[in-house]
Batch of 4 targets.
Target 1
Amino acid sequence: MGLDPISVSLTKFQQLEILRQEEEDRAKEMAEVEKRIRNILWEMERLKYLQRVHPHYMSVKPPEEASALADLEKYRQSLGGALAAIKIAIQALEKELGPGVAAPPPGGSGQARRKYNSFEEFRRNR
């Protein structure tokens, strides 16, 4: 006697919510990566300027993070591509689901919705 395999599938609304959350998370991550890149570039420009002001600064080494700049830029480009793909997927799902898909229908998880909530459910969802 074998058991049936366990499977999981996502509703279109769940897919949309996953994409929206991922877009929000990756946008925050993108902001952090860009902030790090700007800070590194600023420090490098600062050093270049000081080197033009006086020869003493020629012996000052660039910030340690400067060596990570190329990797950060690659990651930024990859993240930008992911964000673009997520936005396209969101638009496609929203178009497929039609107007008014700002939130999943009541019950959210695809369960059949009863006409009335119990008092405990009402209190929990309040």
Target 2
Amino acid sequence: MGFVSGLVVYVITWWVVLFAVLPWGVRAPDDPQPGHAAGAPATPRLRLKFAVTSAIAAVIWLIIFLLVQSDLISFRRMAIGL
């Protein structure tokens, strides 16, 4: 896996993990202010969620990288078989 393809895999993995992590710990405020959405989180904690997303995506990327490097999954052999 080259640098660019590795980066693309990481970015895609990061976005998928982000959408899985965003709902964690979301609580609506007890008394929403007028003009605010009722379902908006009281404290979104986006920096923490970005950090957790980055860590999880890095672990998943490492697993994908090791699978590709070990030839356990060979995309070239799959393409030849088609």
Target 3
Amino acid sequence: MLRRVVEDYLESIKEVQFFLPFSYLLLLKGFYDVHIIHGSYEFGKDIIAKKDESDGTIQYVFQLKAGDINLSVFRDEICPQLLEATINNLSHPNFDPKLKKKIFFVTTGILKPPATLSFQEFNNNIQNKFRIDPIQSIEKLDMVEDFVKLGLEPFFTLHDDPAFIGEFFSFYAKIKNNTDLDSFSIEIYTKRWIVEECEENINKLQVFLEAYLFSALLLNYRRYYQAALFIAGLARFLLKNNLYSKHEQVLIDYFNIIVTNVIEEVQTLYNNNQKLVNLHAKKGPLEIFRYPKKCLHTLELISLINLLSEKNDSKLNSIIKEIIGKERGWERPLSDNYAMSVALIGLSLMKNGEWNLLKKIINNITLWLCDRYENIGLSRLGSSEDEEFEQLLSEYLEGFDSKRISTSFLASVLLDLSFMTNDPEFYERIANDLRASSVILEYYHINIDENAYGYNGVSCSFDPRFKRKFETRYSKGIEIELEDNKMTLRSSADIPHPNQANVE
């Protein structure tokens, strides 16, 4: 079974999903000073590492590729990179040109004939010309053996817990069977990466394998948002272990792949005069209620990659504007679960200077929100999809349990975004609408910085006395202090905002 898991990983991944797991596999094999070089200035070297052997310290170079390698790929892509790795010693400050160099070509697939013959002739030529050791290949079967024997088997032996192992295979089976997974089940699963002790390289290797395996399988099923959530979980793991800056570009490169797929799918739909939801192809009477989720999640993914980009990307801005213009689902978030989706979309529009479009987003969602809170409100943060539907339909259909909800995290996000437009008249109109609908603004607080990774110690509070006037000072709220590990609350005085403060 473990062998099949590794085969699935190797068969599903993109090249950029191979670097981190392979680099930690090298550490388990006794290599050290391992660095991922992949990028514009790699000079034929995706990963470099050193290893002490009987004839001294060896400088290793690894060139990585995903998938099977045919003759044209080998000639056009692989040969130039291997030649560059052979003759060029530029790459990284830790690369030592004085050491004996060994080069390996690594693929998650196989070298197909006649690429094997071309590789053999390439080796003969560089041996005769440069007097170096032949370049060796590591292929899929070698990778499966190493990942199972050095990674998964020792890892599961180390964590000899049936519940732990069962959860892994249960999640794997659900994804393989294309079973629905909600965002919270994925976040709960990835939380174990954070709470487990991850100082050992074998634990890190397992995290990378799980993140990229599950994400790659979901990406192949075109479940882009869930695929991105696994990468978000990996980012949290790296941040907590002070590894994010080292691997940031690898994660962003892969996230770009996910978003590129999203954009291509959206553009294909629009070219065929369809929208993000095709009612003729849906399953079940409630599928129409998933339309807002798809709209908001699609905009969130594109907005997030836009925020991660160093410069304004006109293509990303254009597709965001097109989706907002053609779809209506984004106007109707089903619960507070979508508050951060709205926040990221709003911040992306601010980055692009799309202030009028931002006001449209805030205004239309506020109208929907106020309408809902004049009735029974939207379901809370952490609600399941079924609970979202039940809350939405309970006042209209018998058999559903109607729950009157007065507080809203989404309302707080909308008010904050309206304040950031720096338009007092617009802000006061949004604040007045929220006040008139009697919605109580709800805020979430992380009491200790380290709890940002594990979701523990998060509290919520609200201030129903907010003013509708545009102010430039913080509110009189609640400050949380820790004394001898005991949490105490006290009222805070007015504190000037460093720029332009929040509401009073």
Target 4
Amino acid sequence: MEEGGTDIACCGPNITEDEEARIMAAREKLMNGELDIYAGPLSDQDGNVKAADGETIPDGELWQMDWFVDGVITQQ
């Protein structure tokens, strides 16, 4: 986001002040490197471990990501 990536659009009328504060706190952690979304444990939809507990998927691998995270429902 800091280098021109997509930022969040927060927040709509259905979001409480507490929820907005939590969202913005998570955004801040993303911005300063304290939070990594693609950190394990992560598995694909077939149960294959893609990042073990404590591991982080590097940016280069994310650009080549060709699998869905377990629990994601795809369009048919």
